[in-house]
Amino acid sequence: MREVIPAIKALLVKELVKQGESQSHTASLLGLTPAEVSYYLKGKRAEGEYKTILENDEEFMEMIRHYTSRLHEADRVNICPLCSLARKKLGIMDYSCPYDW
Q1: Considering Cα of 32, then 5, then 61, then 65, what sign does the dihedral take?
Q2: How many CA atoms lie within 13 A of 51 on its CB side?
Q3: Could you give the CA distance from residue 61 to residue 11 in angstroms, rounded to a whole number?
Q4: Residue 67 in 3-state DSSP?
Q5: What whole-number distance in Å separates Cα of residue 100 and Cα of residue 35?
Q6: What is the CB neighbour count within 10 angstroms for residue 66?
């Protein structure tokens, strides 16, 4: 379960950089350190089955693109809907928030 959030972060990082954002601005937008962004881009974090499944799901990636476009307009974006959709796509039937542990 704890692998879902890092997979989402990795996909958000990848999409922001793909859209032309610098690593430091990507870090700022997502509340990450530049080192974390670098790790996500180099595949040192969140490289696994969950990320692969989500990355190949068009509906999920459309939602990622939607969220990355909103990051430019908002101070903060709630990723709870992303996490809920990811858990649904991954077949994780435990609907509790991973951060409630």
Answers
A1: negative
A2: 20
A3: 8
A4: helix
A5: 26
A6: 12
Give the type of residue at 28.
Answer: S
Strand (E) positions, the chain? none
Distances in whole angstroms, Cα of residue 42 to Cα of each of 30, 75, 82: 17, 27, 23
Two structure tokens written together for 15: 């999409």
The string of pLDDT tens digits covering residues 74-91 is: 767 788 899 989 999 999
Contact 48, 8 (CB under 8 A): no
CB 29 within 8 A of CB 16: yes
**pLDDT for 24-50, tens place per residue?**
999 999 999 999 999 999 999 888 899
pTM as predicted: 0.89
Q: Which residue has the tokens 């530049």?
A: 34
